[in-house]
Design a protein that fits this description.
- The chain is an alpha+beta fold and 568 residues long.
- The protein has helices at residues 21-24, 31-64, 71-79, 86-92, 99-103, 187-190, 200-218, 279-294, 335-345, 399-413, 430-435, 449-462, 474-483, 502-511, 523-535, and strands at residues 4-5, 119-127, 133-137, 140-144, 152-160, 164-174, 232-233, 243-250, 256-261, 268-270, 307-314, 321-327, 349-356, 368-374, 378-382, 385-389, 420-424, 441-446, 467-471, 490-493, 515-520, 538-546, 556-563.
- The strands form five sheets. It has a seven-stranded mixed β-sheet with strand order 10-9-8-11-12-13-14. A seven-stranded mixed β-sheet has the order 19-18-17-20-21-23-22, with helices on both faces. A five-stranded mixed barrel has the order 2-3-4-6-5.
- Helix 2 (31-64) packs antiparallel against helix 3 (71-79), helix 8 (279-294) packs across helix 9 and helix 13 (474-483) packs parallel to helix 14.
- The longest helix is centred in the N-terminal third of the chain and has 34 residues, at 31-64.
- It binds S-adenosylmethionine (SAM).
- S-adenosylmethionine binds next to helix 11, strand 18 and helix 13.
- Residues 1-96 are annotated as: Disordered.
């Protein structure tokens, strides 16, 4: 399949841009960064608010792992206050012509004097990290869920704080050509996607802008200074997710529901029609829901044992599925009847486990997992490599884009077979194993023991004896190795959303490997960490955004930093 790479060669610097962008930039040396700082101060507000919400979510993800956290729980945090109106907003997103709307006073007050309910006119400049439209009212950032870059909206203020305003669309005065009808029947309620109301070309442009914006704000690098490559998207940006974590609950009218919580609520949205989920997962989830209902399985977090979450993962190339029933006790009413029925009716499910979670945090999994039936792992492939995944193993959610991401990591590492490489934050060792055939030695570091066990097993499965995996914190193990005389040629990191620990960055700055490869799912922390390394004598060779999660506001990047003086 042809790779969807955005047009525009090389750095992407020559890309036509919004009017006024170039005027703001100075051609004088040093002014670019100064402007970035001024811009940061001017609009720091939005960040402060949004960043706070995200910091909470980031902390949650850092604590619970990249995919270990309950998606709905973290999303609720991330969504913050302005989310409350998003449902209404999407409903209101079509232009309306009501006399009452027209009669509403349009505020011309200073930003600090605005009150909830006041109407303001906002030109949307970009998307924010939650996918909301961001514009400015008298230089104060305004977050407008559902609004798209380039749109002019009449918006009702919903929240005023010292740093930012939130508002909901009352009327779209100028509509973006990228606005489309969301494909997913549950888009308005689910909250799993944030950008389905924008066509895919618009999403890709908006994500590039997110990266550009993060580097201007947090690394002080203006557009001309940032070697940003055009984002790599998908040809078919739907049905790519290989895994679902579905909460079990009750339907309002009775009966069992499996789905995601609506943002900010405990109402479950049935995601049977989810447009980004692999169809085999959606179909199996619906069958399991019916079978659990028939087996009389209790749901929720009851002390006597009840089903909390259903986790389904598919190996797309074989269609085999792995099922993990997360429950508040290992045995729960109807469990064995349910397993029996699944074995009979869903032969594509080749592994069924129960995981016990009695906790009240948004963490999906508890500590204990027991195989109930079938194989202990799901075998899947990425490129030429085979992976066996235990129920809790982290594995990238979009296999097609993962191959592109890992190929970029390999390109950045530029290995000749003689190098020693560190894959810090290695998860189940997938990147380390991608690099192992091209390196002398690869060492992976990961805090989760099971992930390291998986990594070691997968190294054996693929016959790579030069890849070793270590349980520990990257910021502790790497400095220890360095003290013992270890000098890696390439350090690669793929940290959680919170970014790299400062002790790790200090070690990199001390050891100064010729190449530092950063794989990141959060442009803000990526840019902050890059600033540290730029100050420590590195230059950015290229930044490559990859769209791992079409229809959402997430964007992943691979970035190559080269030590100044080393061969680029
Ligand atoms: C984004 S995932 C990386 C996954 C892996 N590179 C992949 O592509 O599948 C981040 C990983 O870092 C681990 N982690 C979090 N904090 C860590 C730390 N301080 N040191 C080492 N690993 C850590 C998490 O458990 C998680 O597996």
């Amino acid at each position: 399949m042809r790779e969807h790479r955005r047009n525009g060669a090389g750095s992407g610097n020559g890309r036509p841009d919004a009017p006024g962008r170039k005027d703001k930039r100075s051609t004088e040396p040093g002014k670019g960064a100064a402007h970035a700082v001024a811009k940061r101060e001017r609009s720091g507000a939005d960040r402060a608010g949004a960043t706070k919400v995200h910091d909470d979510a980031d902390r949650a993800e850092a604590k619970w792992g990249h995919d270990g956290a309950n998606r709905a729980g973290v999303k609720r945090m991330r969504a913050g206050a302005d989310r409350a109106g998003s449902k209404r907003v999407r409903a209101a997103a079509a232009p309306r012509a009501s006399g009452r709307e027209d009669a509403v006073r349009i505020a011309d007050a200073a930003a600090d004097e605005l009150r909830p309910g006041d109407r303001i006119v906002v030109t949307i400049k970009r998307i924010g990290i939650n996918g909301e439209g961001v514009g400015y009212y008298k230089r104060k950032a305004v977050f407008v869920p559902g609004a798209l870059p380039g749109e002019v909206v009449k918006a009702a203020v919903t929240g005023v704080d010292p740093n930012r305003l939130t508002a909901r669309i009352a009327e779209i005065e100028k509509r973006s050509p990228h606005r489309v009808r969301p494909a997913c029947p549950v888009y308005d309620r689910c909250g799993g996607c944030q950008l389905q109301h924008m066509d895919y070309a618009g999403q890709l442009t908006a994500k590039e802008e997110l990266v550009r914006e993060a580097f201007a704000r947090y690394a002080g690098l203006e557009e001309a200074e940032l070697p940003l490559r055009p984002i790599i998207g998908m040809d078919e940006p739907w049905r790519y997710r290989n895994k679902a974590q579905l909460q079990a609950g009750h339907k309002p009218g009775g009966g069992l529901a499996l789905g995601l919580y609506e943002p900010g609520s405990r109402r479950l949205v049935d995601i049977a029609g989810c447009a980004v989920q692999h169809p085999a997962v959606s179909a199996a989830a619906e069958r399991i829901r019916r079978l659990a209902e028939r087996a009389g399985v209790p749901v929720g977090a009851g002390p006597d044992g009840a089903l909390r979450t259903v986790v389904l993962r598919v190996a797309p190339e074989s269609g085999e599925l792995q099922l993990t029933l997360v429950a508040s006790a290992e045995q729960f009413p109807g469990r064995d009847r349910l397993v029996e029925a699944i074995r009979r009716e869903l032969p594509q499910i080749t592994s069924i486990s129960v995981n016990v979670n009695r906790g009240s945090s948004p963490l999906v999994f508890g500590e204990r997992t027991r195989l109930l039936w079938g194989r202990p792992d799901l075998e899947t492939r990425l490129g030429d490599l085979r992976f066996k995944l235990s129920p809790r193993a982290f594995f990238q959610l979009n296999p097609e884009q993962t191959v592109k991401l890992y190929d970029l990591a390999r390109e950045a590492a530029a290995l000749t077979g003689r190098e020693t490489v560190v894959d810090a934050y290695c998860g189940t060792g997938t990147i380390a194993l991608w690099l192992a055939p091209h390196a002398r030695e690869v060492r992976g570091i990961e805090t989760i023991r099971e992930a390291v066990d998986d990594a070691e097993r997968n190294a054996r499965l693929n016959g790579w004896t030069n890849a070793r995996f270590y349980v520990g914190r990257a910021e502790e193990l790497l400095p220890r190795w360095v003290k013992q005389g270890f000098r890696p040629d390439v350090i690669l990191v793929d940290p959680p959303r919170t970014g790299c620990d400062s002790a790790l960055l200090r070690t990199v700055a001390d050891v100064k490997p010729a190449r530092f490869v950063y794989v990141s799912c959060n442009p803000s922390t990526l840019a902050k960490d890059c600033r540290v390394l730029l100050d420590a004598g590195y230059r950015i060779e290229w930044v490559q955004p990859v769209d791992m999660f079409p229809q959402t506001s997430h964007v992943e990047c691979v970035i190559l930093l080269v030590r100044k003086g080393a061969d680029g």
